[in-house]
């Protein structure tokens, strides 16, 4: 590259003599590139794919006839041609001649040299007078060029001629045989891909500002968050409570001396039991909690009733906690059996209020599901089901969310393949369109209903699979709210446009959670510790 720069710039006469193109060459250039309208060139655009090498005429093999053959491409058709493909294929490689080939056989031409700018289309060239013209008034062969009136296309054509001139003068070999002035047919010239750049040279560094900015990764379709159960720090509310009782956790107050004995993390949790045990001046608080995510925790705090010991002094205030994590999904047969045990009774309990104008309990929507599950207490031969705990009503089998009619997310849980009669439906701030127009607002923020008809998803489901609410289909329920006694209604989840939805299966308490709630961890329960 440096040696190329050191070369003296030849005159146009040198170019003419070196290439033996004479007057006909510049006349041809004038005809091809004379006075074309100015155009906007996009220097960053990728040039179109080069045409394949044209066939050579066996009649002549001199340089002049070769140049004429290159210029003899048929003009493009008058109708618009299709755009070049985005990844053009390379032109065919030339057929190399062996050293023993006959001298009368001309070598095949090389592929066209790739140039930085495409040459103007021959078919669009005007034949009017061009600034790049020959002055014959002096009778001399010296070429004169009107440099002040060169068009952009004329400049490109001239630079292309310089490319070819330097290639022939430098003689940098690349193994491709081309006919050239003063050279035999077997002599070679290196094929230069870019102006002043040799093949194999490393590409220039890309400036940081010119690099495209990476796009932020879009969330996967099955990645969505729900507002229930509440988020936790360590994976479950029970484990969070166990960490709260760690000696490394700082307590801001002696909360254990309050009458209810609730730790700060258990405020507002309805499933809570506690007890006291006193030995002289030593008192021990016991407590058990079942959280909304159905994890459980038990704790104890032993302290002296005399004085005001620092709650973080582990010698004076002894703390202890253990927990059970969130229960794992149940198998298909276990969920079907649970439906056969509880489902029909739960659905029948809700339907017994339908059309009577009588409310269940207070008339709150939650009461209908809560009382249906409590109904089993009078039957001692039926295991107690998981009671309604906040917005959870047993084993979660589906959860979903929608932000519009066409943006829904959801996930199936457990081994069953359908929604069954007696399952419990929970909404939060949801809107569902009705077929005849209008929509229902379900939840302000929460709403509960009992499903009274089976619903088979429109696609195969399995535990952990992404399933949109639309695939669940139509859910037929019995529901009530304050001011609206129990009645039957149908909701098409494919028309869900906003909010969240959960579907629960009533299941046995001990079978699913491992134990009933007590103030102290029952014997035989394999609770975990931090």
Automatic annotation (TrEMBL):
Sequence ranges of Low complexity compositional bias: 95-106, 207-221
Disordered: annotated span: 1-146, 194-221
InterPro entries: AIM3_BBC1_C (IPR057402)
Biased composition (Basic and acidic residues): 14-33
All residue ranges annotated as the BBC1/AIM3 cysteine proteinase-fold domain in the record: 322-514
Compositionally biased tracts (Pro residues): 46-56, 74-94
Comp. bias (Polar residues): 34-43, 125-146
The protein, known as: BBC1/AIM3 cysteine proteinase-fold domain-containing protein
Lineage of the species this protein comes from: Eukaryota, Fungi, Dikarya, Basidiomycota, Agaricomycotina
């Amino acid at each position: 590259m440096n040696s190329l720069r050191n070369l003296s710039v030849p005159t146009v006469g040198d170019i003419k003599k070196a290439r033996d193109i004479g007057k006909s060459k510049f006349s041809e250039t004038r005809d091809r590139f004379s006075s074309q309208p100015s155009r906007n060139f996009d220097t960053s655009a990728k040039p179109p794919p080069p045409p394949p090498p044209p066939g050579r005429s066996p009649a002549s093999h001199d340089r002049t006839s070769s140049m004429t053959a290159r210029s003899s491409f048929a003009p493009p058709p008058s109708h618009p041609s299709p755009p070049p493909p985005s990844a053009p294929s390379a032109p065919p490689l030339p057929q190399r001649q062996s050293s023993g080939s006959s001298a009368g056989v001309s070598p095949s031409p090389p592929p066209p040299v790739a140039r930085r700018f495409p040459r103007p289309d021959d078919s669009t060239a005007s034949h009017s007078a061009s600034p790049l013209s020959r002055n014959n008034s002096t009778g001399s062969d010296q070429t004169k060029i009107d440099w002040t009136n060169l068009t952009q296309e004329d400049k490109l054509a001239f630079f292309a001629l310089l490319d070819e001139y330097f290639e022939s003068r430098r003689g940098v070999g690349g193994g491709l045989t081309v006919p050239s002035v003063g050279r035999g047919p077997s002599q070679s010239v290196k094929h230069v891909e870019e102006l002043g750049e040799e093949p194999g040279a490393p590409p220039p560094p890309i400036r940081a500002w010119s690099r495209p900015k990476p796009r932020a990764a879009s969330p996967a379709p099955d990645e969505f968050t729900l507002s229930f159960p509440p988020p936790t720090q360590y994976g479950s509310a029970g484990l969070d409570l166990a960490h709260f009782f760690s000696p490394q956790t700082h307590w801001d107050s002696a909360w254990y001396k309050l009458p209810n004995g609730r730790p700060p993390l258990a405020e507002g949790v309805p499933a809570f039991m506690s007890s006291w045990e006193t030995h002289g001046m030593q008192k021990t608080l016991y407590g058990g909690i079942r959280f909304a995510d159905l994890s459980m925790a038990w704790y104890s705090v032993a302290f002296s009733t005399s004085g005001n010991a620092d709650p973080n002094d582990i010698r004076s205030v002894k703390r202890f906690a253990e927990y059970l994590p969130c229960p794992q999904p149940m198998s298909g047969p276990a969920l079907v059996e649970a439906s056969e045990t509880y489902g029909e009774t739960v659905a029948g309990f809700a339907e017994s209020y339908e059309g009577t104008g009588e409310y269940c309990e207070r008339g709150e929507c939650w009461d209908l599901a809560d009382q249906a599950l409590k109904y089993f207490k009078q039957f001692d031969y039926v295991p107690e089901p998981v009671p309604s705990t906040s917005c959870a009503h047993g084993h979660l089998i589906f959860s979903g969310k929608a932000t519009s009619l066409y943006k829904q997310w959801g996930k199936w849980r457990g081994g069953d393949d359908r929604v069954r009669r007696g399952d419990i439906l929970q909404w939060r701030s949801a809107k569902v369109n009705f077929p005849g127009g209008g929509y229902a607002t379900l939840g302000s923020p929460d709403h509960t209903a009992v499903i009274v008809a089976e619903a088979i998803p429109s696609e195969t489901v399995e535990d952990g699979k992404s399933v949109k609410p639309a695939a669940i289909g139509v859910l037929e329920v019995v529901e009530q709210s304050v001011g609206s006694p129990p009645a039957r209604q149908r909701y098409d989840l494919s028309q869900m446009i906003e909010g969240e939805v959960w579907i629960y299966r009533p299941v046995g308490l001990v079978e699913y959670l491992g134990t009933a709630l007590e103030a102290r961890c029952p014997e035989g329960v394999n609770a975990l510790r931090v």
